[in-house]
Design goal:
CATH superfamily of the largest domain: P-loop containing nucleotide triphosphate hydrolases
Bound molecules: guanosine-5'-diphosphate, magnesium ion
Largest sheet: 6 strands, mixed
Radius of gyration: 23 Å
Order of helices and strands: EHHEEHHEHEHEHHEEHHEH
Number of helices: 11
CATH class of the largest domain: Alpha Beta
Helix content: 25-40%
Strand order of the largest sheet: 2-3-1-4-5-6
CATH topology of the largest domain: Rossmann fold
Strand content: 15-25%
Length: 306
């Protein structure tokens, strides 16, 4: 049976919600927005496994009112509460519960829906097991007597116990369809789009001087860090003179291109990006089939359907 559903991640600011989401979601959903319109709310990310699919809902403005003990919750956040099949409430395991946590627990209990209480940042308590146990007991009290809850300790930063969370969430989702195609946004697609953005910035800044003689190769696209994507890209040009133009006075041109491209990629992936650009001369690259293929560009004449 395939399970799927909508999940809202709740919790106070700074507990690690974004870090957790970025870690869980191998695919950034930003560029599949046409599909995302099938639901009413903004989608923050999708996790697909063999057993099911988790669609994370955005809950803007939910954590903020909690600081003021819930005097106000935005309509959108309330709607996310209603639409969610399940909640993930994230707390910082190194801190005891606060009034905000008690308040959000009440809101969740009122829905009757299942909640997974995530004690995040367990890595900060490595040598303080007693503290962790003490806080676990205090957090457990928030859902005492409420049958639809469980607790998972993990570290969004180190990745510890993350797969347990994914499995636990899917186990509690209803039977359902795959809302998003599994291959919606693959790493490969992100690479291609990043290359397209960089190429666009080159053309934008150099205009007719570098007409269509630049190719962008993504040498590495490293997502192993939780809060940073490292991209190494090479700009290939036909002639040495073009290399000079691309680099510009004291590197000013390549710097501008890099900044513009990085900012746009960051917006797309909703994450910090480190972008390194290199310029290399490769004569007649447009006629080099092997080279084109290595960039993921099929040579014009030999385009095969596979
Ligand atoms: P949010 O406000 O709930 O979205 O929290 P963020 O994801 O922005 O994280 C707040 C801070 O906590 C950042 O500096 C993170 O790097 C850090 N953080 C998040 N998860 C962990 C974790 O598991 N362990 C540690 N040590 N730090 C974490
Ligand atoms: Mg955040």
């Amino acid at each position: 049976m395939f399970r799927s559903g909508f999940v809202a991640i709740l919790g106070r600011p700074n507990v690690g919600k974004s870090t957790l989401l970025n870690r869980l979601v191998g695919q950034k959903i930003a560029i599949t927005s046409p599909v995302a319109q099938t639901t009413r709310h903004r989608i923050k990310g999708v996790v697909t496994t063999e057993k099911g699919q988790i669609v994370f809902l955005d809950t803007p403005g939910f954590s903020k009112p909690l600081d003021r003990l819930g005097n106000y919750i935005s309509d959108e956040s309330l709607a996310a509460l209603n639409e969610a099949d399940l909640f993930v409430l994230v707390v910082d395991a190194s801190q005891p519960p606060g009034k905000g946590d008690a308040w959000v627990a009440e809101q969740i209990k009122a829905t009757g829906k299942f909640v997974i209480l995530v004690l995040n940042k367990v890595d900060t308590l490595k040598n303080r097991q007693a503290k962790l146990i003490e806080h676990r007991l205090q957090y457990a009290k928030l859902f005492e007597g409420y049958p639809n809850s469980r607790m998972i300790s993990l570290s969004a930063k180190t990745g510890r116990n993350l797969s347990e969370l994914t499995e636990a969430v899917i186990r509690k989702l209803p039977e359902g369809p795959m809302y998003f195609p599994e291959e919606a946004v693959t790493d490969q697609r992100m690479r291609e789009i990043s290359a397209e953005i960089i190429r666009e910035k080159v053309l934008l800044n150099t205009r007719e001087e570098i007409p269509h003689s630049v190719a962008v190769g993504i040498e590495s696209f490293d997502e192993s860090q939780a809060d940073l994507i490292r991209i190494d890209a090479v700009l290939y040009v036909d002639q040495k003179s073009q290399k000079g133009i691309l680099i510009g006075q004291q590197g000013s041109m390549i710097k501008t291109i890099g900044i513009q491209a990085r900012e746009e990629i960051e917006e797309l992936v909703e994450q910090k990006v480190h972008l390194a650009l290199n310029v290399k001369v490769r004569e007649n690259w447009r006629k080099d089939a092997v080279f084109l293929k290595s960039l993921g560009l099929a040579p014009p004449a030999a385009k095969s359907p596979t």
